[in-house]
Structure formats: C-alpha cells, structure tokens
Amino acid sequence: MKDIKFVTLNNGLTIVFYNDKTKHSAILDLIIKFGGINTSYKYDGKYYKIPSGFAHFLEHLVIEHSMYGNMLPMFLDNNINFNGATYTKMTNFYIDTVHDFNRNLVKLLKGINTRVFNHEDVEVTKGAILEEIRENLDNKFRQLDKLTRECLFKEIDYQDILGTLEDIEKITYEDIKRCYEVFYKPSNQLIVVSGNFDEEKVLELIKDTYDSFQESKVKTEIPFVKEPLEVRKKEKVIKTITEEDYVRISYKIDISKLSSFDKIKLSFYMRYLLSYNFSSKSDFQKEILDKKISVYDTDNDFYFLKDFVILELGTYTSLKDEFISLVKKKIKNLEYDKEDFELCKKESLISIILRDENLNSMVFPLVDNIIAFDYYDYDKIEDINKETFEDYQDTMKGLDFSNYSITSIVKDK
Q: Do residues 195 and 259 share a domain?
C-alpha cells in the first residue's frame, strides 16, 4: 500500500494525499461533514433546529445551481466522472478522471464553495426532492429504518436522509443559506486526493482556490449531542400493506470508552461474530428452520453512530415472539470458534490487499475511518495480523447487549 500524507491549512481545511503513480486516473473527494445525523446548529448566537432532509437538499442545490449552472452535465459532457451523495454523517462530492485533473479540481472546489443559489433555485430544487420522497413513500424498509431510529434514540433526532414531505415543503431560502454557511465552511471539510497526480501542484491549486473564497464572518457552532444509553421505546409496529410480516431487534451498545483504533478493530470483530453466529450456515439459522419460525435467512448488520454500535437482526416471520426469544437466547450464549476466527482474519487480509487494486476501494474505508472514528489512517495488514482470538473473545464479551428495541412490519388487516 502507498503512504498517505495529511496537510491542514490555516483555514482549518484538512487535505489527505494518497499518491499512486501506478494508476492512470486521479480522484478528488470533497467531504462536507454534514449528513442526516446533524439536527441542530448555532448561528450568530441563536440556536436552530435542522429538519430532516436538509443535507440531501443542499447536495442537490449546490450541484444543480452552481456558478457553472448544473455541474452534472458540465462534467459528464467532458468525460469527467462526477457526482454527489449524502450519507448519515457526511456529504461527498467527487471527480474521477484520466485527463485535465487539475483544471477540473478547481472547478469542483469553486462550484461547491461559491454560493450563488437564490430563492427561485430553492423552490426548483424543492420540487425535485419532493418527487423523490413521494417515490419512496411506499418503501416499507425505509419506514422500518425510520421507526427503528425513533425507538433507539432519545436525543439523536435523525429521521432519514431524504426528509419528509412536510419538512421539505417548509424550507425557505434563509433556512438553507444559514445551513450552507454553517456546514460548508473550510474547517468543516475534508479533501481526499488519490491516484496519479502532482502533489505539489495540487496543494498549490487547493490553497489558491480557497484563498479566493470570501468566508462568512458570522459566528457559527455545531453542537455536540449527548445521547443516553437507554432506548426511547422498547417496541413499536408499522401496519402496512405487506405480503409477509417482518420483525427486527436492534441492540444499542455503548462503546464510548473505546479508543478510535479499538472501534475500528471492533468493526472487524463484529463481522466475525455475525458470520459465525447468524449466517445462513450457523446453528442459529438451522434452529430457525427446524422450528419453522422462518424459511428466510436472518438479516444481520451493524453500524456505528456517535458513541454506540447498533446491531440489527431481523427476518420475515409471523412468529415474532419465537424469533425474538431465540435471538435473545443466542445473544446471551454467543459462540466463538478459533478456526473460524483465523479464517475471517485471512479474508480481512485479502480484502485489504485487494484494496490497492482500486482507488475507490482504498479511499472509501479511509474516509470512513476519519468521519466515523476520527482515525486518520487506513486499516493496515499489520493491524489485522495483531488480532488474537483471546482479544476477540474478551472484546465481544465486554459488550453490553441489555439495551434494545423491537420494531416490526405487520399486515394491515
């Protein structure tokens, strides 16, 4: 793997360089630390609440109503791969090209960081977003995800990335302008440059470009939200049109005492644990089938949010209580197998080795480490080699699975 280099400018902007002269292309990722999870801010001493969908709304607005007009066709017409995406914790804009990288890098940075949108642009964007929301209204798993978050969290008022029809309809130009000034400033941004590029020249271009911007002098603040361990609600149900009922149990596990590196290590251990205990080949799944609780595999996943890791287990079944009972029993009696652990380690090593073959496969985990864990490095082969079966067991046995919520989709009769 190639070395990475970090540079922080006087304006607070952090730049990550990952230079690889064996590649033909170069990629610039402009990360704005503004996503679905951000629900409040202070502007000029006044507190404002952010309704759901604002980060996604701004992503569309700045792309489609930039100083260059709509940046999407501008880049694509010149054979530059470009797009934007909004996630839970960030918004990402990127270009990926084998030609004219420096010139298009400047265009991207200027396009996103120069606010030219007006009242009419906000209304036009509003119409497109409302249509996107309507297209997703019948997505039952989007509804389930939203319900799950409502049950799990008390202070984190994270609905979803798209937002609701009501919230988007109420957006004003003043609302979105304030959000832009708070979140789109250099100190709240991260730039990752990867691939084949001239590091000295690119750094000079980035510095000069940001020096040309007029940053707002208004005092802004992004407050820290302290989320308690207890869940808001133990159980809740969605009644809707569905062919089969679905149930999910979500565990809210406190990891606030872990270091940034230990949280990353936990992400590997969680995958190992789920693979052995809840995969289609596990004893748990065999019991589910034998007892005719479900003919489907058990969905298993986890994600990190604030000081918690959320573990989700669910399946299609009409025998909700029986499924939940078996999950709870299994969680209390998790199994650990040394041979399986070593196999999982090998798979992790292979995955990391293969990342070097593709720039995006390298950059995405690096960005995730920075944004999710405040860890400014990528996962290394030597880190995986240091994992031990004993540490794996001790780490997982040290987690508290006593806080959970149960959410379900049932037929509306």
A: no
Residues whose CB is less than 8 angstroms from the CB of residue 271 and which lie 6 or more positions away in sequence, other chains included: 344, 348
Do residues 245 and 411 touch, judged by C-beta distance below 8 A? yes
Based on the fold, state whether residues 125 and 242 are members of the same structural domain: no
Domain ranges, residue 376: 235-411
* Token pair of 167 as six digits: 């919230």
Quote the tokens at residue 262.
Answer: 């230990």
Question: Total domain count for the chain?
Answer: 2
Whether residue 229 lies inside any domain: the answer is no
Q: Which residues of 290-302 are buried (b: 16+ CB within 10 A; e: fewer)?
A: eeebbebbbebeb
What is the number of other CB atoms lying within 10 angstroms of the CB of residue 249?
Answer: 21
If asked whether residues 57 and 204 sit together in one domain, one would say yes
Name the β-bridge partners of 30.
93, 191
Q: CA-to-CA distance for 303 and 312, rounded, in angstroms?
A: 9
pLDDT for the residue 355: 86
Cβ pair 182, 222 in contact under 8 A: yes
Question: 292: which 2 tokens?
Answer: 């005719």
Average pLDDT over residues 320-344: 97
Helix (H) or strand (E) holding 147: helix 140-152
Same domain, 327 and 301: yes
Residue 412 pLDDT: 83
Interatomic CA distance for residues 316 and 297, integer angstroms: 9
pTM greater than 0.90:
yes
Which amino acid makes up residue 372? A
212 and 243 share a domain? no
Is the CB of residue 248 less than 8 Å from the CB of residue 262?
Answer: no
The separation between the first and the last C-alpha atoms of the chain, rounded to the nearest angstrom, is: 57
Overall size of the chain counted in residues: 413
For 75-97, the DSSP string reads HHTTT-EEEEEE-SS-EEEEEEE
Q: What is the mean pLDDT of residues 356-384?
A: 90
